[in-house]
Every structure is written in structure tokens, then in C-alpha cells.
Amino acid sequence: MKVLLIKDVYKLGRAGEIKKVAAGYGRNYLIPQGFAIPATPGAMNQAERITVKATERRAVLNEELSSVAEVLEGKILTFAVKAGETGRLYGSVSDDDLMEAIKANFEIELEKRQVETEPIRQLGTYVVPIHLTMDLIPEIKVIVHREGEIPGEEDASEEEAAVVEAKEAKAVETEAIEAEAEETEASTEAPEDEAVEKTEADEETAEEADEESA
Fold first, then answer.
1. d(C-alpha 131, C-alpha 102), whole Å
2. 163 or 29, which is more confident?
3. Do 18 and 80 sit in the same domain of this protein?
4. The CATH number of the domain where 16 resides is what?
5. Cβ neighbours of residue 119 under 8 Å, at least 6 residues apart?
6. Closest CA relative to residue 37, chosen from 5, 8, 1
7. Which of 44, 136, 195, 200: disulfide with 132, CB 3.0–4.6 Å?
């Protein structure tokens, strides 16, 4: 089905745009939540007016929320969790958990739609975008680490392992280059040795011939 967006919708479009969406998504979410209306001929006549109004409203919001974006940009949130040997969490870190942590750490209260992210179910470091407006999308770093361990410890171990692996690969590559060089040198020297032997043999033959003629 086609809908006319009357509000900005992240990953879909800006207010005033006409979009083709799945019928269930349009009827069960966009229209009931007030993000869109059916794209009837009458509604489409309002598209330009909606676009102008939305642009003005977006500019105001960008100005109001710019300070919030500055506060959030590049910030780090850590979560100590229980996890199995493979690093899979016993549970997950949800968008609700992120919203609570942001409120507790930065005194910023967000709406659920502004922290749309898949639940985190594995130890690691993640970058999560915060959708303040279509133009203001600060990113925060989320570190999920095992209880009792220092945040970033696993990342450091992974980096060390990568360094060791790179060194081993370099050593193997160096050995291969040296072996190839030795083979090339040997194949180059062989003909020279043969040439020398042949020359010496020719000289001996010539000397014998001179002695006989004498």
C-alpha cells in the first residue's frame, strides 16, 4: 500500500513523502501511530504543505536538540552481565536498558523510537545510533562485558591475538620469500658452474692437443 508520511520516520522517509510499504506495517503501525495517512488523491494534494510544515518543525527541533546531541555523541555505556563461555549473554541488553542507562548517566530521557536497536545478546563493543531527529543522530558506544572483568579486557585480548596472528603470518611470508630467493639463486648459479667446468675441460683438451702436435 502507499502512504503519505505526515511525520519523519527513520529509515523510511521524511514528512511529505509518499512511500510504498507493506500493508500490515502501514495499517498496524504507521497510520495508528500518526506517522502516515493513506495516500489517497485528496491526501496527496496536501503533500507539499506537509513537507513545508515538517521542514520548519525539523529546523526548530534540530536547534532545540543540538545540545543533547553534543552530550550524547561519543559517550560510553558499560554493562556488566552474565554470559556463557562463548560470550553469549544469559538474557540481553535491550533498548529499554539503554534508555535507562542514558537517563541515569546523562539525565536525558528518550522515547523508545529514538533508540531503535536489536537486543544485544553477545559480549562485545557496539555503536548505537540515537535518532533525535532525521538530521541529528549522535552515536554512543556500548560495551557489554562479563561480570568481574574489566570493560574492554576482551577487546584487548582479541587485539593481542590479532597482532600475534599477523606476526605469524608475516613470518611465514618471509620464510616463503627467502626460500624462493634461495631457489632462484641456486638455479642461477648452476648454469655458471657448468659453464666454468666446460671451459676448463676445453682448455685441458686444447693443451693435450698442443702437446701431441709438439
1. 14
2. 29
3. no
4. 3.40.5.10
5. 92, 93, 94, 95
6. 5
7. 136
The pLDDT tens digits of the residues spanning 37-86 come to 999 998 888 899 999 999 999 999 999 999 999 999 999 999 999 999 99
pLDDT tens digit string along 124-134?
A: 999 999 999 99
Range of the domain at 111: 72-151
The grid coordinates of residue 165 equal 596472528
How far is the C-alpha of 100 from the C-alpha of 102, rounded, in Å?
5
Grid cell in block for residue 181 = 630467493
- 105-138 burial, b at 16+ Cβ within 10 Å, e below that, comes to eeebebeeebbebeebbebebbebebbbbbebeb
Same domain (yes/no): 141, 176: no
Alpha carbon 93 to its chain's center: 19
Claim to verify: residue 144 and residue 160 sit in the same structural domain: no
Q: Is 56 among the domain residues? A: no
Cell of 208: 693435450
Cell reading at 183:
631457489
